[in-house]
TrEMBL record:
Molecular-function annotations in GO: fatty-acyl-CoA binding; flavin adenine dinucleotide binding; glutaryl-CoA dehydrogenase activity
Protein name listed in UniProt: Acyl-CoA dehydrogenase family protein
InterPro entries: Acyl-CoA_Oxase/DH_mid-dom, Acyl-CoA_Oxase/DH_mid-dom_sf, AcylCo_DH-like_C, AcylCo_DH/oxidase_C, AcylCoA_DH/ox_N, AcylCoA_DH/ox_N_sf, AcylCoA_DH/oxidase_NM_dom_sf, Glutaryl-CoA_DH_mitochondrial
GO BP, one annotated term: fatty-acyl-CoA biosynthetic process
Listed cofactors: FAD
Listed SUPFAM superfamilies: Acyl-CoA dehydrogenase C-terminal domain-like, Acyl-CoA dehydrogenase NM domain-like
Domain Acyl-CoA dehydrogenase/oxidase C-terminal per the UniProt entry, residue ranges: 238-386
Keyword field: FAD, Flavoprotein, Oxidoreductase, Transit peptide
Superkingdom to which the source organism belongs: Bacteria
Acyl-CoA dehydrogenase/oxidase N-terminal domain mapped to chain residues: 19-132
UniProt organism field: Streptomyces sp. NBC_00119
Domain Acyl-CoA oxidase/dehydrogenase middle: 136-226
The keyword RNA-binding appears for this protein: no
């Protein structure tokens, strides 16, 4: 019996592994983004803004994308696979969209869901799930990135109240957030606080001049004697392990998300190579171009297999080990950025134009390579897991 033609976009038939529900998530998110976002995303990237944010947040809320893998409080309570697939489609359009959803759901909402009081959960999670309240997550500081345990933002007691002083840097969603989850040193070590952004002494100036994640809001957080009631502290968060648990959630979304950016770049390069003629034939017919397209496809689909495996581990009773997430984040981001850079070469001069998605994805992935633990940090985390020796300091 003759074989059916290979699907160039899915040569290993990995989409056949998805359930009907997961395919429905994929197609609903894809359709929405194709209709409402794709026609504008290059302009938003160029102008360095996400001008539709309050409306977009509500639309994402209606689609169940905010806190998608969390239970209760209006969250969709879907599988890790479904959440990953949504991240993939979002990032196939732009890493800025996936970053928005990751920070809202996996960082800000997850922190409150996992470590918050009943009152904090009731107050914030339903509105955040609906996209009516945007959240941010303030861990990084100007002088403390990869080593957050050394943070200098302080929370001190004043009677029953807490007073927060310090600065956070590179905070996604900061300037548009209604609530900030802020991590600070206390006499008892690192603790988390739920800070309404209209609290006196809180401000979130926008960070400008970014050449990456331009369709995403990135801000500084300034905490200048911000007074909070005792009830603002996340009661179950103790030590720097608490924010790291949240980061692990967001990294899982990145493992999937970057396969979307890489898929988009591969597709753009393959289409271009089929149409662009030089020396009398399509550049896809040259061996050197084919080698690029084949190598890109191998890494893209190996990355998807890694994401699928991590999803199944995450959905299993044993769960997924943080070092396994490091495996996925390290491999998939590193390969995705290489795929985008190779795709750019296939497009020649057009590769540097925003008329095509490739350079935008490549530039965005420079941020993704750095945030949620740099490549180097994940090498060290995996190195420790594999050898038993910590080489961080
Ligand atoms: C667009 C964007 C959005 C972001 N959003 C958020 C957010 O919402 N919330 C938040 O809290 N943070 C956010 N970040 C911050 C991000 O998490 C940090 O930038 C990241 O953790 C790295 O910290 P750093 O930039 O201070 O680099 P550094 O930690 O100063 O690292 C600089 C270089 O030194 C290397 N290095 C450091 N230590 C070692 C070591 N022991 N061994 C070998 N190499 C080492 C690093 O790998 C890196 O290559 C965001 C960043 C960007 C770019």
């Amino acid at each position: 019996m003759p074989f059916a033609a290979l699907d160039p976009v899915d040569p290993l038939n990995l989409e056949a592994l998805l359930t009907d529900e997961e395919r429905a998530v994929r197609d609903t998110v894809r359709q929405y983004l194709d209709d409402k976002v794709e026609p504008h995303i290059a302009d938003w990237f160029e102008s360095g803004e996400l001008p539709v944010l309050p409306e977009l947040a509500r639309e994402f809320g209606k689609m169940g994308l905010l806190g998608m893998h969390l239970e209760g409080y209006g969250c969709a309570d879907m599988s890790a696979r479904a959440y990953g697939i949504a991240c993939r489609e979002l990032e196939a359009t732009d890493s800025g969209l996936r970053s928005f959803v990751s920070v809202q759901g996996s960082l800000a909402m997850f922190a409150i869901h996992r470590f918050g009081s009943g009152e904090q959960k009731q107050e914030w999670l339903p509105r955040m799930a609906a996209g009516e309240a945007i959240g941010c997550f303030g861990l990084t500081e100007p002088d403390h990135g990869s080593d957050p345990a050394s943070m200098t933002t302080r929370a001190r007691r004043d009677g029953d109240d807490w007073i927060l002083d310090g600065r956070k840097m590179w905070i996604t969603n900061g300037s548009v957030a209604a609530v900030a989850v802020v991590w600070a040193q206390t006499e008892d070590g690192v603790r988390g606080f739920v800070v309404p952004t209209d609290a006196p002494g809180f401000s979130a100036p926008l960070i400008k001049h970014k050449m990456s994640l331009r369709a995403s809001v990135t801000s500084e957080l300034v905490l200048d004697g911000v007074r909070l009631p005792a009830s603002a502290r996340l009661p179950e968060a103790r030590g720097v392990g608490a924010p790291l648990t949240c980061l692990n959630e967001a990294r899982y979304g990145i493992v999937w998300g970057v396969t979307g950016a890489a898929r988009s770049a591969w597709q753009a390069a393959a289409d271009y190579a089929g149409q662009r003629e030089q020396f009398g034939k399509p550049i896809a017919a040259f061996q050197l171009t084919q080698q690029k397209l084949v190598d890109m496809a191998l890494e893209l689909h190996k990355a998807t297999l890694t994401a699928l495996r991590l999803a199944d581990l995450k959905d299993s009773p044993a769960g997924v080990h943080p070092a396994q997430i490091s495996f996925g984040k390290l491999n998939n981001v590193r390969e995705a950025i290489q795929i985008c850079r190779t795709a750019r070469t296939i497009l020649g001069a057009n590769g540097i134009s925003l008329e095509y998605p490739v350079i935008r994805h490549a530039n965005n992935l420079e941020s993704v390579l750095t945030y949620e633990g740099t490549t180097e940090m994940h090498i060290l985390a995996l190195g420790q897991a594999l050898t038993g020796h910590a080489a961080f300091r």
